[in-house]
Amino acid sequence: MALTTQEFAFVSGLVRREAAIVLDTGKEYLVEARLLPLSRRAGTDSVSAFVARAQRERALAEQIVDALTTNETSWMRDREPFTALTDVVLPEMRAQRSPAHRLRVWSAACSSGQEPYGLSMLLEDAGMPYEIHATDISSEMLERAKAGRYSQLEVNRGLPVPLLVKYFHRAGTEWEVSEALRRKITFQKLNLAAPLPSAQPFDVVFLRNVLIYFDIETKRAVLRGIRRLMRPDGWLFLGAAETTIGIDDGFDRVVAGRASAYRPRAAAGAPVNAMGRG
Length: 278
Ligand SMILES: C[S@@+](CC[C@H](N)C(=O)[O-])C[C@H]1O[C@@H](n2cnc3c(N)ncnc32)[C@H](O)[C@@H]1O
Known about the structure:
It is a single chain. The chain has 11 helices and 10 strands. It is of the alpha/beta class. The chain folds into 2 domains: about 5-65, Chemotaxis Receptor Methyltransferase Cher, domain 1 (Orthogonal Bundle), CATH 1.10.155; about 80-265, 3-Layer(aba) Sandwich (Rossmann fold), CATH 3.40.50.150. The strands form 3 sheets. The protein has a 5-stranded parallel β-sheet. Helix 3 packs across helix 4. The chain is globular. Bound molecules: S-adenosylmethionine.
């Protein structure tokens, strides 16, 4: 049974309020397809009945938000930003930071973990001290990311064989990420569209393939919040279809190898307050 206009409005309003994800009219089919497994699990007769219950039960509403995130990811996705990290960013950091400086890297929409683990492999190989903070709004994805276990099909999606051999071991039919990488990464639930918590400033931020789901005001607020959590000479990498241009003029786009990256624009006379809010 198809969702009514009111039911769709409830779901799209909920997802927009809680995750800033925009679901325009026309996405009814997507909503139904994503909610059907939840409805079956909850034992309701139809997606409509599930949505009716979710209007009263907070836990079900949270499941809806989670189910309507799009978690598509792969290893070293688009390759160039990862090559830029190794070939451009890390040599610059090595030259500019003290050898004892621990690089702070943020994977700000980490999905099932391929992005932060991939970054971790490159940083291990570079032999520089580092820590990675990996965040996402989806509890389900964070559980998967923390588990660090991937099917053969998943490792086939972009993971170079030498890195598989070096950083994974077999766990039954799956591959498990080595402890050496896991202990460098913390996973945490974080809604990018809510005010961001204070943190020590980051050297590198991967904010890839998530801005596309937000409206322009949310994109602007997220970029501004992230900029304030970056070092003044830090590096931001966005998805291939994303940019700061025309949204937040506090960044300069720079060429990093064959990738584009974004760096906080030095404001004349105004020191960047990496811990600032608002
Ligand atoms: C398409 S995946 C991108 C994963 C990875 N960064 C990449 O490029 O492969 C988008 C991720 O953004 C997360 N997401 C969506 N809305 C969010 C929000 N408001 N705050 C934090 N994460 C969000 C989703 O849960 C999903 O895991």
